[in-house]
Backbone:
């Protein structure tokens, strides 16, 4: 197999000429022949002025390049699509598959022997791993790292759990605009990703657990020297992978690794979004992420990590408390520690050499968990024949069993228009249903599942209600929220047939969610249902025509498989 600049030559019908030309352009950029004969490591940078979470990506790329040169390689930094949660209309999820295609195609097109993937903000690491698994070139992930916690009037604040808490208090009238404004300055106090166990922290943790990073890479704060040293070490390791030609992503993304990810997702009370991303990443390796198995894993694995929103602490505390290998040590009886990592060690070898110190308050022992049961459960029933997810660790136990009438919102516009209408017929005994917010419906399955509590109830002190939708929810959010109802309403799922006043019964402990309407009546309603109009052209058209449902990862059907 051709290596370095000799690989993947532009096709002019004359390979030697193509190489002559390629080297000529690099000579023109000041490279010597000696430099051009070295193993080449691509450094995929997600730096963007529109992505403040990745503000340190250029600095990390420099440190990675230093590590590459120290090991005798030649680094090339190149850009890719960069997605930030607050800067992608209508939702970053719509663009995750596009980013994954960009990653895959550029990794396959460029003359690199290994690639370092700098990611962090929610969709970036999933997109990078989806693309890397499909390209199957040696690849190693470097998360940008999380922000430090903010401090305000004696309280530590975390994006975005506290953004939501403060906003809910402001909506309910218990916090005024000035107080909100003062806290606003401290919610995102440094560069880096959200520092609670939201989706970014979850995906970094799962990337480390799957074996795609060096140990410690999930947790070191973005602005720490640990992060810069990790970047240098990652560059050095990438050269060894370039020379050895591996390990390749499909050697790392195995059934055992995916099961380990399921264990850690439950034990960290991670983001429900990870269910969708794990299914998509597994699909790229020709594997399935089994939701029933995930649910079974959860029954045996309590929540050990004491991070917001389920607990009290932040990613910097997780790092100082021992980091991911310390959590693996706690979970050793539930994990397959023979699983390999890109660093060349198995998980078990890392655990064996990792410092013994573990902060028992942040990374709890099995006999003193944060939450004694599974963090996330998978429900099914007549309302969700292919499943739905609920984060029990962020829900109200008194609402785990619920039966009551639905108040239905037909989409995001309808929700925004009516949720605070004083005339809305809603009481705490209702459940709120949002539909047409799934992969096809929105499109892109936005994080709208934690519907706001109607003002008229919030102002009376109601903080939680059962909410059901085909949307996703931010990993930083909380509440008794049933998500990812599959099939979604816009694909003709039963959610499309619910009407105001229909009774819905949920038993989260028994894993059931049912629409209590006669079959004959549902058949009548189905006969009247019409699928939504498709976008006329472009990526939006491709998306709604080829996106799979949540249980398959919302990937494009033509991208799955090897
Ligand atoms: Fe980037 Fe939270 S918005 S990680």
Residues:
């Amino acid at each position: 197999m051709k290596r370095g600049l000799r690989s993947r030559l532009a096709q002019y019908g004359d390979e030697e000429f193509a190489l002559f030309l390629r080297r000529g352009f690099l000579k023109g950029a000041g490279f010597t022949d000696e430099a051009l004969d070295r193993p080449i490591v691509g450094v995929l940078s997600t730096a963007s002025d529109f992505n403040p979470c990745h503000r340190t990506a250029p600095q990390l790329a420099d440190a990675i390049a230093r590590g590459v040169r120290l090991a005798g390689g030649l680094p090339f930094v190149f850009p890719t699509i960069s997605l930030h949660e607050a800067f992608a209309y209508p939702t970053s999820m719509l663009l995750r598959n596009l980013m994954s295609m960009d990653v895959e195609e550029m990794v396959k097109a460029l003359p690199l022997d290994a690639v370092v993937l700098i990611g962090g903000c929610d969709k970036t690491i999933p997109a990078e791993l989806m693309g890397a698994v499909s390209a199957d070139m040696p690849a190693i992930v470097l998360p940008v790292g999380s922000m430090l916690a903010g401090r305000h009037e004696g309280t530590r604040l975390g994006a975005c759990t506290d953004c939501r808490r403060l906003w809910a208090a402001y909506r309910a009238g218990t916090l005024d605009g000035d107080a909100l404004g003062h806290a606003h300055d401290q919610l995102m106090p440094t560069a880096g990703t959200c520092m609670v166990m939201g989706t970014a922290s979850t995906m970094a943790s799962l990337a480390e657990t799957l074996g795609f990073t060096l140990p410690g890479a999930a947790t070191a704060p973005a602005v720490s020297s640990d992060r810069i040293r990790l970047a240098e070490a990652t560059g050095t390791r990438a050269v060894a992978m370039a020379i050895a030609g591996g390990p390749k992503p499909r050697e790392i993304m195995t059934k055992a690794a995916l099961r380990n990810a399921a264990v850690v997702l439950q034990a960290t009370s991670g983001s429900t979004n990870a269910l969708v991303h794990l299914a998509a990443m597994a699909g790229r390796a020709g594997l399935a992420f089994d939701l029933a198995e995930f649910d079974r894993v959860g029954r045996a694995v309590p929540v050990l990590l004491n991070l917001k929103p389920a607990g009290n602490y932040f990613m910097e505390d997780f790092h100082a408390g021992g980091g991911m290998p310390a959590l693996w040590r706690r979970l050793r009886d539930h994990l397959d520690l023979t699983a390999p990592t890109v660093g060349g060690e198995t998980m078990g070898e890392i655990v064996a050499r990792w410092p013994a110190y573990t902060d028992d308050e942040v990374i709890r022992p099995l006999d003193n968990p944060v939450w004694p049961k599974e963090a996330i459960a998978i429900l099914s029933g007549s309302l969700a024949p292919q499943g739905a997810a609920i984060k029990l660790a962020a829900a109200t136990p008194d609402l785990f069993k619920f039966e009551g009438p639905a108040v239905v919102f037909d989409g995001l516009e309808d929700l925004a228009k009516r949720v605070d209408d004083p005339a809305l017929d809603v009481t705490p005994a209702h459940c709120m249903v949002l539909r047409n917010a799934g992969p096809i419906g929105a499109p892109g399955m936005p994080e709208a599942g934690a519907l706001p509590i109607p003002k008229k109830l919030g102002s009376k002190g109601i903080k939680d209600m059962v909410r059901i939708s085909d949307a996703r929810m931010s990993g930083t959010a909380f509440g008794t929220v049933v998500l990812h109802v599959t099939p979604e309403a816009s694909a003709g799922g039963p959610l499309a047939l619910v009407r105001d006043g229909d009774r819905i019964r949920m038993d989260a402990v028994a894993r059931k969610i049912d629409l209590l309407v006669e079959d004959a009546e549902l058949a009548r309603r189905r006969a009247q249902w019409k699928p939504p109009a498709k976008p006329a052209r472009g990526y939006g058209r491709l998306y709604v025509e080829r996106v799979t449902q949540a249980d398959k990862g919302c990937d494009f059907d033509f991208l799955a498989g090897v």
